[in-house]
Amino acid sequence: MIIIRMTGGLGNQMFQYALYMKLKSQGKEVKFDDINEYRHNLARPIMLPIFGLEYPRATWEEIIALIDLSPRISQRIKRKLFGKKSVEIRERDINFDPRLLENDPAYLTGYFQSEKYFVDIKEDVRKAFAFPNYIDMQFPTDLEQKINEYQNMIKHTEAISIHIRRGDYLLVDELYGGICTDAYYEAAITYMQTRHPDAVFYVFSNDIAWVKKWLENRYIEKDGQKNAGNFIIITGTNEYTGFVDMMLMSQCKHHIIANSSFSWWAAYLNSSPVKTVIAPEKWLNDNDSRDIFTEDMVRISAEGAFL
């Protein structure tokens, strides 16, 4: 048996589920540990059910057996005499780790943020992450109306999504900071405007107040002009309805993503062969994270230079 430890928000859960699909395609028995990371009051919500997905859940006894942490006296004595016999495998870094596709039994811990884990079944993965019709989800009337309006605008414009991730990223600035800078976004926007003169930018963020000030200072009123770009800020979602942002992003024609698995998936779920996806040169400050980037991405540095 293989158990995948579920962790993080929607984007991370999607990478973990994609790995689950790959391992299942190899004929392996795979379950999820959705206990350890999600039993605390401050834990992020488990969001995979929004896609209508179900998954086999490992029992506590199965988890304990694989990581060899049974509290029983006999097992504690055995560990004391012969050492711990855990089959836990932690990914070495954020890059593709082939061991995760080879070992069985195993308890897998990590984020698995690379298409390389599932590239041969990528269309199946995209189908698994199909969003339901929002009308069937019984949103409050005002949010349903907003979604309808946004979808109509995105459908009838040269829609380009921009994702600006702040909030929790500011708490670990040493890991995420200084990557998606003003220079990064300015270079990305200019690149898109050059290639798509009729571009309309749909801005998604977990810090709407900051985004409004940023746009006002840099674009909405630039050199006394108010025609430096056409920007629409997407509002109305929260932690539990944030998947609506991913759905709307994925419906845009092109994408400017942050160093975030959330916008990575939004761009990935757009299967158009002519889409443009702009990504930051770096994903994290503590390793090269080379395998998270797909071949079609255009990468821009924090200084605004093209890779």
The whole-number mean of residue pLDDT values reads 89
Q: Which strand order does the major sheet show?
A: 7-6-5-8-9-10
The level of helicity is 25-40%
Please report which band the strand proportion falls in: under 5%, 5-15%, 15-25%, 25-35%, 35-45% or over 45%. Answer: 5-15%
Question: Multimeric state of these chains?
Answer: single chain
Largest sheet features: 6 strands, parallel
Q: Care to count the β-strands?
A: 10
Number of helices: 10
Secondary-structure arrangement, i.e. CATH architecture of the largest domain = 3-Layer(aba) Sandwich
Low-confidence stretches: 69-84
Query: What radius of gyration results from the CA coordinates?
Result: 21 Å
Task: Describe the structure in your own words.
This protein is α/β, with parallel strands linked by helices and 307 residues long. It folds into 2 domains: 2-126; 136-300, 3-Layer(aba) Sandwich (Rossmann fold). 34% of the residues lie in helices and 14% in strands. It contains 10 helices and 10 strands. The strands form 2 sheets. Strands 7-6-5-8-9-10 form a 6-stranded parallel β-sheet, with helices on both faces. It starts with a strand and ends in a 7-residue tail after the last strand.
